[in-house]
Amino acid sequence: MSCDLPQAPLQPLNLPWLQQARIQAAILRLDLIDPLISGNKWFKLRHHLQHARQAGAPGLISLGGNHSNHLHALAAAGKRFGFACAGLLRGDPQDTPTVRDLKALGMDLHWLGYGGYRARHQPGFWEPWQARYPGWHCIPEGGGGLAGAEGCASIVEQARRQLASLGWSGYDAWWLAAGTGTTLAGLVLAEAGQHEVHGALAVPRQHGVPETVAELAGAHGYRLHDACRGGFGKFDDDLLAFIADSERHSGVPLEALYTGKALMALRDQVEAGGFAPGTRLIFVHTGGLQGRRGYL
Q1: How far apart are CA 197 and CA 136, in angstroms?
Q2: Assessment of whether the complete model's pTM goes beyond 0.85
Q3: Which residue in 25, 128, 164, 277 is deepest, having the highest Cβ count within 10 Å?
């Protein structure tokens, strides 16, 4: 199985507040690598798919919500690369555009309720599912774990190969949304302290992102910034107005749960003087645009 998709383009990011602060920024468009297996979700899945193929697993099982970008990418990848798929979903059955796509892509859906979903970290959670789907490869929520982080490490090389096209000889730091911390950890592992990685927390800190990143990548080489705007999945009129204005200026589509929050947090940091004039930043567009259908 070939686990390669087209390279994500690195493009200049031109916004008035960046220009005013004399910050140079480029955006790595992970949203453009594939119409279905999009964004950082592909990188988090890549090694899981390889491990499943090597083990001869007939199928893949993972977890997510009714707008899950991860399950959406998993279902599409399973169909493309010949794996059956099952999704364990949070809450009660709902009809959303994402859920309809999962069904159309052939994923078996199991609704766990809210209590059942909270038990996903408990010992023995996977045992009944492994009995129901013998030999299937179980993937942590969001494609997490070391396999997911190691897959995301290749994001760094994708950007580095394109620096010359911008006329850059180098860069100073990364900025990206953090939902589980897996992608952030992958970049930290790849950078090995060469450049700082800034993670804009799209979820409250108590969701465990700091602990996840520390477990996967250690305690150094990154900084975390609060960007959740009241909680996971929460957004407000100010954020939506900022996204609309940013899309107008840049031509880059954004979504409100991750990338939009991350860009707004970067704006706040830049306007507070967090970066010196002349700094070169790489902003990662982590995809997830299919999830916009849940709130537009």
Answers
A1: 34
A2: yes
A3: 25
